[in-house]
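Bumping with the actual sequence this time:
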Amino acid sequence: MAACLRNARVDLDITLIDPAPFHDFQPAWTLVGGGICRPEDARRVLRDCVPPGVRLLAETVTALQPQEQCVRLANGALLGYDFLVVAAGMQLNWGAVEGLADALGKGGVTSNYRHDLAPYTAELVQGLKGGDALFTQPAGRIKCPGVPQSALCLAADHFRRTSASVRVHFWSAGTSAFGIPFYARALERVMASYGAQTHYGQNLVQVRACEKIAVFESCMNGELLREEVHYDLLHVVPPQSAPDFIRGSVLADAAGWLEVDRHTLRHVRYANVFGLGDCTSTPNSKTVSAIQGQIPTVVGNLLQALRGRDSSESYDGYAACPLVTAPGKVLLAEFVYGGVAAPSLPLDPRVPRRLYGWVQRVLLPWFYWNILIRGRGVPTMHRVRYFSDAVPDWGGLPGRWAASLQRVAARVISASALTGGRMAPRLRAALQQQRERHGK
């Protein structure tokens, strides 16, 4: 976001407030937990990611005061602004589950929602020879909503390949395997193929680590019921919310999210405030690809506001969620507002594909580090497409798909003006390898 603004207007005075020493490509944490990616490959020093000409302030925001057009910092200072972009992400509420915070990282309890715990997930999966593996999903919004299902599938694939006698369970506070029905049926088929048992309407409320017991709460006929379940491996997705400094602000809606217009991403009451990413009230899936789709809208409308004009850019709710169904194989769920399928390629997106596994493992990290955070624009690839309600059979991989990806990546490279950079030859080599593998 800051890079895009800087590229558009070099005269802008831009300050980035972030206390973190590192910046992470969080979608890769799932692959770290699956033993596919190294932790260091998903992390870079934050200061090295900040574009030239942008001031980095390593402080924590504690309050938003839009009436005074300032933010309050943890050191007590007030920082004024003319325009404010809030891109604070989600807050992980580990303490909302009794006993969870103290249990993490030992005794079989883990989560791919922490950089330091993802390697422990891989260690647990590889070391488990029998027993019960539980994967949980909480009530409410979460970022990267395919993480628990992906962790389950990667673990189940390992157990199958090593003939481990592990019973795999998916405990979710939701009503299906995924929030978009079009994709949920396909994902449930994948999970069933691993013999995973699903338990819906079940919310994790307590972890008793000394007994290796997870306690789930459900509601039946208006009555709260609790069930105690033994685990040998427990992968937890924590309850999540907007950060406290947003929830306690006049900028928040009744649910605590930054209240912005779902299309313009401009605050509904304070015209000089914009929202970006997971912390906003927009009813889209909270993913990196959603941010990619939102950045042009926020940048365009903020630049219009600087000129005293009304917002003209509009976000359609696009998000993409890579659901890892096996090592190197991904069901890429792409959709816009209303849960309408909007894949980038003219292929049925409910079919797990090795092509998309390569996209997640190679192309997306390259795209993130070399295009997205550097503020380089790319053409819009997704579009609404309609498919039969019946979930398709999973067949082989036609060679033309690799050719399609070749064209997509070529457009990305061309649009980003990186063809002469050091990453371009690596991407071209990877594409050539993919084409040779599929006979094209």
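The tokens above came from a reply further down the thread. The CA atoms of residues 175 and 250 lie 33 Å apart.
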